[in-house]
Amino acid sequence: MNRLHDDPVLQLALANLLRDRRRTLLPGCAAMIALLLLWSLNDTMQDSLTENFQDSLVGSIQVHGRDFFRHPRLDNDIGSGREVAGVLERLGVQRWTPRLEAYGLAAGPRASTGMMLIALDPERERRVTRLARQTGSGRFLEPDDGNVCLLGRGAARNLGVRVGDSVDLISHDRFGAPVGERFEVVGILDNGGFGIDRSIVFLPLSAAQSLLEMPGRITDLVVRVPGNRIGEVSAALRRQLDSRRYEVLRWDEMFPVLAEWVSLQRGFEQFFLLVVLLLVAAAVSNVALVASLGRRREFAVMLALGNRRRDLGRLLLLESAFLGLLGSSVGLLLGWPLVSALGRHGIDLSYWLGETGRYYLEPILHPSVDPGNALLLALAVWLITVLAALYPAWRAGRTETTQVLAARA
């Protein structure tokens, strides 16, 4: 500590922070605020997309019979699902729901079309997905329902049915025999992405089990857990379930296109942040270079008094390091409350984004600051400020004492 206290270059660098008004905290402070806001917004948008996608229908993890996801067959079921439910209970997972999936033909007054039949447990489904909240007309399925169904608005329009009308559903049962029954439409779903709008008809689980000769049997079990538990829970399920009978798939394994889109968006975010940092580096370097050129006489006097050339470069680097530290700190202190305030009130992007329900994005974003990301950004702003001073520091070390002093004589 005594050596630092006695270092004249360090003392001069600290003194110059107050004396040299041409160098300012503004570039580092503004960059820190902008980067913090951009990173928080982008993370919020990605979280909104992935969370809404999982909440819409697919969940976080699905457990099927082996190869069922690629080749769905009713005879490749998982029984009652009790074994899987037992593992989930031991893992402390409460949000899961059984389903029965098959393919069939839906016929209405206007048209007939092939559709996916998904049978739900109405009570448990409410805990796992937001399907019940998407019911725009009519109502959602109830536990004591019989032959009733839900359709997306697009499917209802194509078939020519409304709430209260009926559709005929034709499929094959577990043994391959053709089966069919009439179902009353009790609800129409709005904002249905992921094929919900046109390609899926939802049935009560008990009615579908009766229709398809699958008493007490299901084809998959859908699990919803927080994002930070997906890896842990999926790995535990794979360890504890027989891989010869079951397959455990995360949402990003079932739908890699969306996962790749999120990764691509994250890559663009990092690229954009890098561009902002380079612009900050250019601005800081320009300010430092102009300031150093205006201090050539000061540098010449320092050399004449016996300072070494490397001391001049160290002086500028120390000044930049202090400015970067102060700029990033002040930016962090100002940017964090700003992002928190925006998070409380929300940022309405509906004017620019338009209708986003089909793409799993919320038009009103509520950004929040991740402490780890904030510290990483502060370090990046400080580092870029120091690196931007390397060239001005090198130029300062090449100052010619005689020419500068003679020119000023």
Mean pLDDT: 83
Beginning-to-end CA distance, first to last residue? 40 Å
Rg calculated over all Cα atoms: 32 Å
Strand order of the largest sheet: 2-3-8-5-7-6
Shape, principal axes of CA atoms: elongated
Number of domains: 2
Q: Please state the structural category.
A: alpha+beta
Following the backbone from N to C, one meets helices and strands in this order, namely HHHEHEEHEEHEEEHEHEHHHHEHEHHH
The helix tally amounts to 16
Low-confidence regions: 402-409
Task: Give an overview of the whole structure.
The protein is of the alpha+beta class and 409 residues long. The chain has two domains: 2-53 and 258-408, no CATH class; 61-224, no CATH class. The protein has helices at 2-5, 8-19, 26-58, 82-90, 122-128, 153-159, 205-211, 230-240, 251-254, 256-293, 296-304, 309-345, 350-353, 371-388, 390-396, 401-408; strands spanning 61-65, 96-107, 112-120, 135-138, 148-152, 166-172, 178-189, 200-204, 220-223, 246-250, 347-348, 364-365. A hairpin with a 4-residue loop joins strand 2 and strand 3. The longest helix is centred in the last third of the chain and has 38 residues, at 256-293. The chain is elongated. 36% of the residues are buried.
Please name the defining characteristics of this protein.
two-stranded antiparallel ribbon, 16 helices, alpha+beta, 2 domains, 12 strands, six-stranded mixed barrel, 409 residues, single chain
Put the structure in a nutshell:
This protein has 409 residues and is α+β, with helices and mostly antiparallel strands. It has 16 helices and 12 strands. The protein has a 6-stranded mixed β-barrel with strand order 2-3-8-5-7-6. The protein has a two-stranded antiparallel sheet with strand order 11-12.
